[in-house]
Amino acid sequence: MNIATPPTQVTTHALRDAIVRHLCYSFGREPDYAGTEDWRMALSFAIRDHIADSWFKAAGVARREGAKRVYYLSMEFLIGRLLEDGIVNLGLVDQARDALAALGQDYDTVLADEPDAALGNGGLGRLAACFLESLSTLGCPAYGYGIRYEHGLFRQSFQGGRQIEAPETWLTQRHAWEFERPDARFHIGFGGHVEERDGASVWHPGEYVDAEAYDTPIVGWKGRWANTLRLWSAKAADPFDLPAFNRGDFAAAAEPEALARTISRVLYPDDTTEQGKELRLKQEFFLVAAALRDILARFDKEHSDIRQLPEKVAIQLNDTHPAVAGPELVRILHDERGLPFDEAMTITRACLSYTNHTLLPEALESWGEGLFGRLLPRHLQIVDMIDNEHYEANPSRTQSMRSDHQVKMGQLSFVMAHKVNGVSALHTELMKKTVFSELHRLHPDRIVNQTNGVTPRRWLLACNPRLSSLITDTIGEGWVDDLERLRELEPAIEDAAWRERFDAAKRANKADLSDWMAATQGVSVNPDAMFDVQIKRLHEYKRQHLNILETIALWQEIKDNPNADWTPRVVLFAGKAAPGYAFAKDIIRLINDVAEVLNADKTTRDVLQVLFLPNYNVTLAERLIPAADLSEQISTAGKEASGTGNMKFALNGALTIGTLDGANVEIREHVGADNFFLFGMTASEVMERRKIEDHAAQAIAADPRLARALEAVRTGAFCPDEPDRYAHIAANLAGPDYFLVASDFADYWRASREADAAFADPATWTRKAALNTARSGWFSSDRTIRGYMQDIWAARSYLGQ
Ligand code: GPV
């Protein structure tokens, strides 16, 4: 193996030989008998060898330099496929394509064989994956810590328009990227009791489960650095009950293994809603305890004074899910290592920081003290000590972490962190004014903003090769790891010939998507229509129902006047609803029913089509985003912490129709108000509007279009066999309408018609679209990670060391 070759200089020839060698000797298949999966695995291993070289080198540098490491603790890593990511980052696209062709294999077919690893629900998990890639691109020594779920996010299909959930089984297809680490294995305790001995407390857990590590290398741009994603798998501490087996009770003999494994069995299919299950708290502690043991073992190998921990270790809590890291680290430092409590607190706080990802009250985690104390008796005592210490100086306890017999994880995280960040400018300001107002008054320097970002390697270079080549032809390839250089495109945008090339790239992406939809969904759409796309988790605050209502109203208006000059539109949706979220699932079904009626309507279908694509995941996003013209970012203002899909669309030259919510605000500032279709109430107008008791009724009375669309929903125009199927949705929108769909409808309609008019003028539209690409460079996760490194972690880059 030529491990000395810099990865970017590997020849087609060498890569072909490596593929064949792995096919034969890693997988025991001769080329003539190999199937697509064999070729995919062999190519993956050939690529992985080069990633491993970068990885060893990076780890060596970090060890030699005694580097500070960043540890990103997250219950979710939505990494998607990794093969193309590796090939693109190593600069081996041409070589891989040619090597496979020489072996009689098609590159795209082989890449498409890889399962999409969905160890996350949505934005929060995808952000963690983008961050790992940027940490590697920037050469910042880092580990992601998470759980190796056997089943990731469920697979979605539709039956009669209804969402059907099936278990996802990414591990049953062979997975090329992980290395099992039997030597990195820890006993994790739960339950039991606390013994007081000579003024010290000792936790005696009542049961143990083992955490075993699996490592996946995450390579950065040009293979200059690679970090580790370390996922923990639960195994029985004492796997096999031999006496039971010898008695012939085989089920009892296997039980310890089965029970232990339930901890890493499934990802909770929850997105920003509270999950009050004991197993979830067990999962959270399992991740935290294993990660901290691992972090301290690495620290102890390199350093002798535990007081240096904050100089060498930065731990980021991705939302409150890993918040028990606070009390657990205090427990280790105080109970196990004998530091005074105050000092244990100081060190812990200097290591920890916390990212908040939502203000939705139902999504702020809290645990009943009964459950918490049963599972983690010593931690409950420590939480009370932390709470008392923190509030000694402050008699008001309105934002205490211990009220109503609950443990409030947001408050706990805030108190245990030296920095707390929001994920967009608006969200951070709202954190200061609402959920954390009192804590912010006490600690005015603690809250900082780090607006989210996305990795341009996956979300432009890899997913949109046509646009990427045009950009590189125009300004060179420096933009890939210096995304603000996309600004250098602006002069070219004034050139009509260049705009034609930009247009051709988008048109070809749309044609590819149409072909794919025809082949997989049996629906053919007009690739010259505006592709209007809303893809994200289903949630009332994200307002997919606002979009479908507006689509219904448009359909009604086209029917009234079929010969008018309508701008053709294809309205595309994709996204999963939490299995227990009945209202969100009904919205999916409504959209599917509407699609069926509209797509069959001969008078309107040439200008308006609707499609809900099943099983939204990272791979589908990579297909849809490069082909989008219009990006729907229409959440109720104040509810979407940031959004990251919004950034991916703008970067790929889609125009946003959106509210002043989350990062939309900053996107609009960057791309320019002229290149963004703004509508709707602001966050403060939303709060005022809710005070009007009959706000929905007023809005409906004032807008005949809205009234008519709602009436169609209420009376079953899209489900004549069961006319009252959606009466409850119509009633909700006419009644409480907490998310203010009715109140924002008229302005949304107006903005949508402006988008139609702009799209009807291709020269203007292309200019706006290209300006979105040129001005979205700030939304690179490289910029975000630099912000965390400077303002939160005090971490540095070791590139070139
Ligand atoms: I809390 N988010 C998520 O995907 N899952 C969660 O459990 C929680 C938050 C999302 C927010 O909803 C998005 O606005 C945000 O862009 C994303 O986290 C990343 O910050």
From TrEMBL:
> Which reaction is this enzyme known to catalyze?
[(1->4)-alpha-D-glucosyl](n) + phosphate = [(1->4)-alpha-D-glucosyl](n-1) + alpha-D-glucose 1-phosphate
A GO molecular function assigned to this protein is:
pyridoxal phosphate binding
SUPFAM superfamilies named in the record: UDP-Glycosyltransferase/glycogen phosphorylase
The record's section on CDD domains has: GT35_Glycogen_Phosphorylase (cd04300)
**Known PROSITE patterns for this protein?**
PHOSPHORYLASE (PS00102)
Q: What is its EC number?
A: 2.4.1.1
- Tell me one Pfam family matched here: Phosphorylase
Gene Ontology annotations for the cellular component aspect, listed alphabetically: cytoplasm
List-wise, which residues carry N6-(pyridoxal phosphate)lysine?
648
Q: Mention one GO biological process in which this protein takes part, according to its record.
A: glycogen catabolic process
Q: Which cofactor does it need?
A: pyridoxal 5'-phosphate
Keywords for this protein: Allosteric enzyme, Carbohydrate metabolism, Glycosyltransferase, Pyridoxal phosphate, Transferase
Which InterPro entries has this protein been placed in? Glycg_phsphrylas, Glyco_trans_35, Pyridoxal_P_attach_site
Residues annotated as signal peptide: none
Q: What does this protein do?
A: Allosteric enzyme that catalyzes the rate-limiting step in glycogen catabolism, the phosphorolytic cleavage of glycogen to produce glucose-1-phosphate, and plays a central role in maintaining cellular and organismal glucose homeostasis.
- PANTHER family attached here? GLYCOGEN PHOSPHORYLASE, GLYCOGEN PHOSPHORYLASE, LIVER FORM
- Protein family per UniProt: Belongs to the glycogen phosphorylase family.
Task: Give the NCBIfam families listed for this entry.
Answer: P_ylase
What name appears for this protein in its UniProt entry? Alpha-1,4 glucan phosphorylase
